């Protein structure tokens, strides 16, 4: 073997040895190797280890163009759900301080927010989660490698460390769980050099100051929402519509609320240049949609939130026969999360057509491990996945948007029950409740199965989570009517819905 390998690089020698061992013995180093230690990858690897299997997980964070990097746990923990929700909470507290005065608290004015204090606390919490994930992997006997993984063949994984050292692993099954990263525009001079993305925002030590958020995805609106909430001058630049893919009536309520909350919106325009001035400020130039003349403004920070891209190029997937969706670059998967190569699977954001949400990645990962190593045949149910947009006025939904319900069933087959309501906590605080709204999109016939439920208001995530259970049980409008409310809550307004859109009656809830 040594003579045979003479003259080859160390990596090629190891690779050849591994292949020979595998071919002679039919044995692999691991039963399962997972590439990507985020929500899906960690859940899958830990579940597989519960079955006594030999499991390894490779996780590696490619620094953002600005150089930001973070620890184990993937997007959710480090640059997604967790820091986002904590910063959203910081903003909600700012509103609560204002409300508190109306409720009798003596709070000396002016109240101001300190970014470094918030950032340090949030970042410390995230670091504690990074540590927790490492400990959990150790406890469950999952081998963790801080390596960037790619495939050599369908059973062989090459891992490369930060310093360039290569490691070869073989596995009977391979799971790709590498997630996505924020996109930057290719054709806007200065965009990559002078801007940041959400990958950087949560790790800033100093306040971003006056910020331009480009994009109208939920990530864009959530970031703009909490930046406004902590008192920063924030503008959102929107090319076409906000919250694409969500119910557009609800999207309108979310942006209307943000507008009255203090977020500025520039509709129907996109930056065509980002320049750094001698002062350090960033001048952004765009074409004014009305006059078609060039317009510009200066900002301290420009944040692009125009979508996320699958980073499958470096994984060598196509070379080993894994089919990718041409436009998205995501892995084409079947109901079992299997790719076009039978022993290679993909879970989480990287799977084509999968909802890009943490609980989806976690559940799909766990179920896959149970099917691979337990006796389970249970498939992931991708229908009626609930979600919430954590904007200043939160928006929770489950099931179909009104547009999608009409598209699938026809306008005449749909009954929409709706209500504008005033959360009790808004009354004493004298807060505007114009955008607090609920609608249940139902089929018109029989017991009226509920196709979609949409809610804007406080604690939308908590409200929507409860009703999402009903969707798994085939909830109908009749079930809503048969449910007793919890008083006084906002959620009880859902089970009180009785005005149809079709009737044209005023959907304003009055009284308690
Ligand atoms: C700002 C923001 C807010 C969000 N808020 C929410 C929310 O409120 N609720 C919600 O449900 N979802 C939210 N999401 C989405 C959620 O974070 C993702 O859906 C989820 O993290 C996807 O999990 P995953 O396992 O597919 O990938 P990830 O969690 O992204 O993990 C992938 C991991 O693989 C690593 N990796 C990539 N390539 C390689 C390689 N070649 N080798 C080794 N490792 C590699 C990555 O560095 C990363 O650590 C948010 C996302 C963002 C960006």
TrEMBL record:
<keyword id="KW-0547">Nucleotide-binding</keyword>
<keyword id="KW-1015">Disulfide bond</keyword>
<dbReference type="InterPro" id="IPR046952">
    <property type="entry name" value="GSHR/TRXR-like"/>
</dbReference>
<keyword id="KW-0712">Selenocysteine</keyword>
<dbReference type="GO" id="GO:0004362">
    <property type="term" value="F:glutathione-disulfide reductase (NADPH) activity"/>
</dbReference>
<dbReference type="InterPro" id="IPR016156">
    <property type="entry name" value="FAD/NAD-linked_Rdtase_dimer_sf"/>
</dbReference>
<keyword id="KW-0274">FAD</keyword>
<feature type="domain" description="FAD/NAD(P)-binding">
    <location>
        <begin position="30"/>
        <end position="365"/>
    </location>
</feature>
<dbReference type="GO" id="GO:0045454">
    <property type="term" value="P:cell redox homeostasis"/>
</dbReference>
<keyword id="KW-0520">NAD</keyword>
<keyword id="KW-0560">Oxidoreductase</keyword>
<dbReference type="InterPro" id="IPR006338">
    <property type="entry name" value="Thioredoxin/glutathione_Rdtase"/>
</dbReference>
<dbReference type="InterPro" id="IPR004099">
    <property type="entry name" value="Pyr_nucl-diS_OxRdtase_dimer"/>
</dbReference>
<dbReference type="InterPro" id="IPR023753">
    <property type="entry name" value="FAD/NAD-binding_dom"/>
</dbReference>
<dbReference type="Pfam" id="PF07992">
    <property type="entry name" value="Pyr_redox_2"/>
</dbReference>
<feature type="active site" description="Proton acceptor">
    <location>
        <position position="487"/>
    </location>
</feature>
<feature type="binding site">
    <location>
        <position position="307"/>
    </location>
    <ligand>
        <name>NAD(+)</name>
    </ligand>
</feature>
<keyword id="KW-0285">Flavoprotein</keyword>
<keyword id="KW-0676">Redox-active center</keyword>
<feature type="binding site">
    <location>
        <begin position="215"/>
        <end position="222"/>
    </location>
    <ligand>
        <name>NAD(+)</name>
    </ligand>
</feature>
<dbReference type="GO" id="GO:0050660">
    <property type="term" value="F:flavin adenine dinucleotide binding"/>
</dbReference>
<comment type="similarity">
    <text>Belongs to the class-I pyridine nucleotide-disulfide oxidoreductase family.</text>
</comment>
<feature type="binding site">
    <location>
        <position position="85"/>
    </location>
    <ligand>
        <name>FAD</name>
    </ligand>
</feature>
<feature type="binding site">
    <location>
        <position position="349"/>
    </location>
    <ligand>
        <name>FAD</name>
    </ligand>
</feature>
<dbReference type="GO" id="GO:0004791">
    <property type="term" value="F:thioredoxin-disulfide reductase (NADPH) activity"/>
</dbReference>
<dbReference type="InterPro" id="IPR036188">
    <property type="entry name" value="FAD/NAD-bd_sf"/>
</dbReference>
<dbReference type="GO" id="GO:0034599">
    <property type="term" value="P:cellular response to oxidative stress"/>
</dbReference>
<feature type="domain" description="Pyridine nucleotide-disulphide oxidoreductase dimerisation">
    <location>
        <begin position="385"/>
        <end position="494"/>
    </location>
</feature>
<dbReference type="InterPro" id="IPR001100">
    <property type="entry name" value="Pyr_nuc-diS_OxRdtase"/>
</dbReference>
<keyword id="KW-0521">NADP</keyword>
<feature type="disulfide bond" description="Redox-active">
    <location>
        <begin position="76"/>
        <end position="81"/>
    </location>
</feature>
<dbReference type="GO" id="GO:0005739">
    <property type="term" value="C:mitochondrion"/>
</dbReference>
<dbReference type="InterPro" id="IPR012999">
    <property type="entry name" value="Pyr_OxRdtase_I_AS"/>
</dbReference>
<protein>
    <recommendedName>
        <fullName>thioredoxin-disulfide reductase (NADPH)</fullName>
        <ecNumber>1.8.1.9</ecNumber>
    </recommendedName>
</protein>
<dbReference type="GO" id="GO:0006749">
    <property type="term" value="P:glutathione metabolic process"/>
</dbReference>
<feature type="binding site">
    <location>
        <position position="149"/>
    </location>
    <ligand>
        <name>FAD</name>
    </ligand>
</feature>
<dbReference type="GO" id="GO:0005829">
    <property type="term" value="C:cytosol"/>
</dbReference>
<dbReference type="Pfam" id="PF02852">
    <property type="entry name" value="Pyr_redox_dim"/>
</dbReference>
């Amino acid at each position: 073997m040594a003579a045979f390998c003479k003259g080859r690089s160390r990596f090629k020698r190891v690779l050849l040895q591994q292949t020979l061992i595998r071919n002679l013995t039919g044995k692999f180093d691991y039963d399962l190797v997972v590439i990507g230690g985020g929500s899906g990858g960690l859940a899958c690897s830990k579940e597989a280890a519960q079955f006594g299997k030999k499991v390894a997980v490779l996780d590696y964070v490619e620094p953002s163009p600005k150089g930001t990097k973070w620890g184990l746990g993937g997007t959710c923990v480090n640059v997604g759900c967790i820091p986002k929700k904590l910063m959203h909470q910081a903003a909600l507290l700012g509103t609560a301080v204002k409300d508190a005065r109306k409720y009798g608290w003596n709070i000396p004015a002016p109240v101001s927010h300190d970014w470094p204090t918030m950032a340090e606390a949030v970042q410390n919490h995230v670091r504690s989660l990074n540590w927790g994930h490492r400990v959990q992997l150790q406890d469950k006997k999952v081998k963790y490698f801080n390596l960037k993984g790619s495939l050599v063949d369908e059973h062989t994984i090459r891992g490369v460390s930060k310093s360039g050292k290569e490691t070869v692993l073989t596995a009977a099954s391979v799971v790709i769980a590498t997630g996505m990263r924020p996109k930057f525009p290719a054709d806007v001079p200065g965009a990559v050099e002078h801007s940041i993305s959400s990958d950087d925002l949560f790790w800033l030590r100093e306040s971003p100051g006056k910020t331009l958020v480009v994009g109208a995805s939920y990530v864009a609106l959530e970031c703009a929402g909490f930046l406004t909430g902590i008192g920063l001058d924030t503008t959102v630049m929107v090319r076409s519509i906000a919250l694409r893919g969500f119910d557009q009536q609800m999207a309108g309520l979310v942006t209307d609320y943000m507008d009255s909350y203090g977020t500025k919106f520039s509709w129907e325009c996109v930056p065509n240049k980002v320049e750094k001035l001698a002062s350090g400020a960033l001048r952004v130039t765009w074409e004014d949609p009305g006059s078609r003349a060039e317009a510009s403004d200066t900002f301290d920070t420009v944040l692009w939130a125009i979508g996320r891209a699958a980073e499958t190029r470096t994984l060598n997937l196509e070379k080993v026969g894994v089919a990718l969706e041409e436009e998205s670059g995501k892995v084409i998967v079947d109901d079992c999360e299997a790719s076009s190569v039978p022993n290679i699977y993909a879970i989480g954001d990287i799977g084509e057509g999968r909802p890009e949400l943490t609980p989806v990645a976690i559940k799909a990962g766990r179920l896959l491990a149970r099917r691979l190593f337990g006796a389970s045949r249970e498939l992931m149910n991708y229908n009626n996945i609930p979600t919430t947009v954590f904007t200043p006025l939160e928006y929770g939904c489950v099931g179909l948007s009104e547009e999608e319900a009409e598209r699938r069933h026809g306008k005449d087959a749909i009954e929409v029950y709706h209500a504008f309501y005033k959360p009790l906590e808004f009354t004493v605080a004298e807060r505007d409740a114009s955008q607090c709204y609920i609608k249940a999109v139902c089929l018109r016939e029989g017991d009226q199965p509920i196709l979609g439920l949409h809610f804007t208001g406080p604690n939308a995530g908590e409200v929507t989570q409860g009703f999402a259970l009903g969707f798994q049980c085939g909830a109908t409008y009749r079930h809503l009517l048969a449910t007793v409310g919890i008083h006084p809550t906002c959620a009880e307004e859902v089970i009180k819905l009785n005005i149809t859109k079709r009737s044209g009656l005023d959907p304003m809830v009055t009284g308690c």
